[in-house]
Design a protein that fits this description.
Distance between the termini: 21 Å
Strand content: 15-25%
Shape: globular
Largest sheet: 5 strands, mixed
Helix content: 25-40%
Length: about 180
């Protein structure tokens, strides 16, 4: 899946300056680079300036990947799960995903809350462990949930405002065997 094509062709992001509250996504050069890095499987740590639409780009990429990669598992980690985390999850991940074309939408939603979504893209019946049900998921964790994060093997780990995550180094060191 070419994420840059997917984002530019099908993506919309929230924009308060637009009458509809949405604008068609168009990647700038740094955003296109991030899509390319994800496409080739490079893991990265990114420091950014304000208002670069990088969080919107990352969550749009996650919204596409959770819909097109079998067994995808994404984690969004924030210092403040209750306000910042839930806001990013709802407005930049869930909302952008709902704006994607109908054919990218899951067959069914197995779990939907303010902190986790699990999709099924299979018509087969069965339990997850029976290899009949193909599921993908995206979860929100707070920085104090290090054991919960370390107990998973995510495809992607998104950390917002990493400078505020006191357990960042511990989390990164735990993730290195699977992500770096």
């Amino acid at each position: 899946v070419c994420l840059l094509y997917g984002c530019d062709r099908y993506g919309y992001i929230k924009d308060d300056s637009q009458p509809s509250g949405w604008r068609k996504y168009h990647a700038s050069t740094p955003q296109a680079l991030l899509c390319w890095l994800k496409n080739i499987g490079v893991n990265y740590v990114l420091a950014k300036g304000r208002q670069a639409a990088i969080t919107s780009t990352e969550m749009l990429c996650a919204s596409i990947r959770v819909r097109v990669m079998p067994s995808y598992k994404g984690i969004l980690l924030t210092d403040d799960k209750e306000e910042t985390g839930k806001s990013i999850f709802a407005e930049k991940f869930m909302a952008t995903g709902r704006k994607l074309p109908y054919w990218m939408q899951p067959k069914s939603v197995l779990h939907d809350s303010t902190m986790k979504v699990m999709y099924s893209f299979s018509n087969l019946k069965g339990k997850k462990g029976e290899n009949k049900l193909i599921t993908t998921e995206m979860s929100l964790f707070g920085s104090r949930d290090t054991q919960a994060v370390n107990g998973t093997t995510p495809t992607d780990l998104y950390i917002d405002e990493a400078q505020n995550v006191s357990t960042l180094q511990k989390i990164l060191m735990e993730r290195r065997p699977t992500e770096w």
